[in-house]
Design a protein that fits this description.
The complex is a heterodimer of chains A (134) and B (569). Chain A is an alpha/beta fold and 134 residues long. Chain A is built from 5 helices and 5 strands. In chain B, helix 6 packs across helix 21. The chains are: A alpha/beta (134), B alpha/beta (569).
């Protein structure tokens, strides 16, 4: 029986165009056997959540280096709750997010924040062990 | 004499031969062999950070076809390999130009006064993402972004505050702005006007390099062709009215930050430069009218020798390209002038004080490579924009190199090193290979449309990440010498008060200005943009009327449309 692939949406919210990390992570997840959909740049929280629902993903990974995380991430979570998928979709984030901001974001529902220096293998492992849907 | 515009002469290095003489072969078979048996080398292969294999030793065998006059020459003369000025730093140090900007224009103005007092010798403006993308601070898409990555500038009023107390006639300013560069430049010129400075005297740079946005930084607004039109408008305007202004800073920095190798950084940057020259000529400009004011911007990454060879190769290649492919007659058209920034992507969030060491080595490579201008990163920039303390230490790094290290005592001190000259030659040869590939695709714009440079960069970025995760490349503090626990770091905080302040200011501006004049000037700009006139004078009028950045960009969006890339992962 073929194991169902983990479906991941990698998204770039906000105006930030720096996509090196998002693309490297997307490729690493693919190499690890996951199905990855990359939204492309400059997505609004609405576009991201709509894509996540449409693609019926298991994981949403937000890449954000611009410092707008404290505004954008809560908005994404709000929308995930509205769409009633917050409990099904694992939400992770990466980029430039200082230590001090992490507790509040985790409280809101971000499962993990991957700061600079994180290896792609760490991200793969985390996703595999923390999936909400099985 | 203009040769076939698609080829360079027979003088380019072909196969880089290596011909060790008997003595070297003897050494390899005896002393070297014995040494390796006693103490094996630490790695199976030594490579630069870009993956270029490096030999144990470089000797005259590596420079078999070397001709001092042809390949090095003297500084201040073709081919400029050793430097574009005869005396280089003996007469004048590089400009210490710290890239800076955050929060409100007042916040940044304060930092500029501080940095000037600490000894920086040029200004460099970092704008926030809404500004970079042509949105006002109160635009819905600006939510959460105002003042976070740089200073928020929505109008001429903000620009006036930014430069309050700073005489533009006496300082030079570089502005890192691309898609809306013409507009921000117009704001700067308008501020200069108001200060009573003559725009034909003021000096500075706008980055204005839209090609690398499509390739790497991805901060574009309009599609490629109208974006190039705006760039050439600035070349034309600059050549007439602002002879001391660099209307472009053709950049490799961002290409490197996106993950390219040193060779790709060099090749794509120079090929971008060639694309701009072609478009300028197609506009009907004489190459010598605008080429003297093209400038460049490179990264200074970790691999010390690869970087300084890169800068030397850049100068020699640009000289040959401008002389042979474009027939430039003015020496200033053939001299590659560049700014350097140490590699942001090399900074670690872990053990951030170690970044000071990285930045120092990188800065040293830039200086030994003959940079005209230098920015050194701050230790905390993997976390946030720099604190005053961190920015000061970064500036001091340059000052120590300049005044205490002795490396400025002579021009191109590493010239003649077998290793350095070999690396320089290899980079040059690699560049011509890339030029051929890109020419075959029809030029840089077609290459970008096909995703060629973007794919090369994504591949290199992925290879590099794998190399780190496999510990083939060591990064101190990341995959080796990791700290279990770290003390907290004080970082710069920017909050939503900036957005509120700027929104309030915009409301006030719109209430106080002559809105009829704004409407008219925007209409005139739209008309000019639809036609073939140079848009700069019209943009200047909009700016003087206090039309906002967003309003002016919207007028251009109406004409040019907007662009989003098709993502390649």
């Amino acid at each position: 029986m073929v194991e169902k692939k983990i479906r991941v949406l990698i998204a770039k919210p906000g105006l930030d165009g720096h996509d090196r990390g998002a693309k490297v992570v997307a490729r690493a997840l693919r190499d690890a056997g996951m199905e990855v959909i990359y939204t492309g740049l400059r997505q609004t929280p609405e576009q991201i959540v709509n894509a996540a629902v449409q693609e019926d993903v298991d994981v949403i990974g937000l890449s954000i280096l611009s410092g707008a995380h404290n505004v954008i991430i809560p908005r994404v979570i709000e929308l995930l709750r509205e769409k009633k998928v917050a409990d099904e979709m694992l939400l992770v984030a990466g980029g430039i997010i200082p230590d001090a901001d992490i507790p509040a974001l985790k409280e809101l529902g971000v499962a993990e924040i991957f700061q600079p220096g994180t290896s792609t293998q760490e991200i793969v492992s985390f996703i595999r062990t923390h999936l909400k849907r099985r | 004499m203009v040769k076939d515009s698609k080829t360079l002469t027979e003088e380019r290095p072909t196969e880089l031969t290596r011909n060790p003489g008997a003595a070297e072969r003897e050494w390899e078979n005896t002393t070297l062999k014995k040494a390796r048996e006693a103490l094996p080398e630490r790695l199976a292969e030594f490579t630069t950070i870009s993956g270029v294999p490096i030999r144990p030793l470089y000797t005259p065998a590596d420079l078999v076809d070397f001709d001092y006059a042809r390949d090095l020459g003297f500084p201040g003369q073709p081919p400029y390999t050793r430097g574009i000025h005869a005396t280089m730093y003996r007469s004048r140090l590089w400009t210490m130009r710290m890239f800076s900007g955050f929060g409100t224009p007042e916040d940044t103005n304060q930092r500029y006064h501080y940095l000037l007092k600490q000894g920086q010798t040029g200004l460099s403006v970092a704008f926030d993402l809404p500004t970079l993308m042509g949105y006002d601070s109160d635009h819905p898409l600006a939510a959460g972004e105002v003042g976070k990555c740089g200073v928020a500038i929505s109008s001429l009023r903000d620009m006036e505050i930014l430069f309050a107390g700073i005489p533009l006639a006496e300082v030079t300013t570089s502005m890192t702005i691309n898609a809306p560069a013409a507009i921000i430049w117009a704001m700067y010129l308008a501020v200069a006007e108001k200060q009573g400075a003559k725009i034909d005297h003021i000096s500075g740079t706008i980055q204005n390099d839209i090609l690398k946005e499509y390739i790497a930084q991805k901060e574009y607004i309009f599609p490629p062709a109208p974006s190039m039109r705006l760039v050439i408008d600035t070349f034309e305007f600059g050549s007439k009215y602002t002879p001391r202004w660099n209307t472009i800073s053709i950049s490799g920095y961002h290409i490197r930050e996106a993950g390219s190798t040193a060779l790709q950084e060099l090749a794509f940057t120079l090929r971008d430069g060639m694309e701009y020259v072609e478009w300028g000529i197609a506009r009907g400009l004489n190459v010598d009218e605008f080429a003297p004011r093209l400038s460049f911007f490179f990264n200074a990454h970790n691999d010390f020798f690869e970087e300084l060879a890169k800068y030397r190769a850049a100068r020699r290649i640009w000289y040959r390209v401008m002389a042979e492919r474009f027939g430039a007659k003015n020496e200033r058209s053939r001299m590659l002038r560049f700014h350097t920034q140490t590699a942001g992507c090399s900074l670690t969030a872990q053990q951030p004080y170690v970044n000071v060491v990285r930045t120092t080595i990188q800065a040293l490579a830039a200086v030994l490579g003959g940079t005209q201008s230098l920015h050194t990163n701050s230790l905390d920039e993997a976390w946030a924009l720099p604190t005053e303390f961190a920015a000061t230490l970064a500036l001091r790094t340059q000052q120590v190199i300049a005044h205490e290290s002795g490396v400025t005592n002579t021009v191109d001190p590493l010239g003649g090193s077998y290793f350095v000259e070999r690396l320089t030659n290899e980079l040059e040869r690699g560049c011509y290979d890339y030029f051929e590939k890109i020419d075959a695709l029809g030029g840089m714009l077609p290459a970008i449309e096909r995703g060629f440079p973007q794919r090369e960069i994504a591949e290199a970025a992925y290879r590099y990440q794998r190399a780190i995760e496999r510990k083939e490349k060591i990064v101190v503090g990341i995959n080796e010498y990791v700290a279990e626990e770290e003390p907290p770091l004080q970082i710069l905080q920017i909050d939503e008060a900036v957005a509120r302040r700027q929104t309030e200011r915009l409301k006030q501006l719109r209430a106080e200005r002559d809105n009829r004049r704004v409407t008219q000037t925007l209409k005139d700009l739209e008309c000019a943009a639809r036609g073939k006139e140079n848009t700069m004078p019209y943009i200047l009028e909009c700016v003087r009327a206090y039309a906002t950045l967003g309003e002016i960009c919207d007028a251009l969006r109406n004409v040019f449309g907007t662009y989003e890339e098709i993502a390649i992962t």
